[in-house]
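Bench notes, afternoon.
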Amino acid sequence: MTELQRTDGQGVERTRYIVRGTIAPRFVDARAVCAADAIPFAPASPRERRALAAMIAGGSIRLAAPGRFYFDMAAYEAAAAARARRLLPLWIGGALAIAVIALLFYPR
């Protein structure tokens, strides 16, 4: 969690960004959350290279200039919300399955 003084398009001041993974926190810690603050970034491993490519494809990491990237928090949050919407039916199904199994073993 990093504290920043940014204002989004609705005039709400953001003071904390909570991000997961290994790449996004580096951008937030470097305060590279807009094109003007873009930083040079080179992945340290093949795994990190794949993760960076996925974040670029998803729009969470954007290219400001050749070799300089910044973190797009709005795109990151939109992707997280979409991921949560996709997983919600699985969580509900799992909860229902557990309830049915519990009822099957309930003593009569």
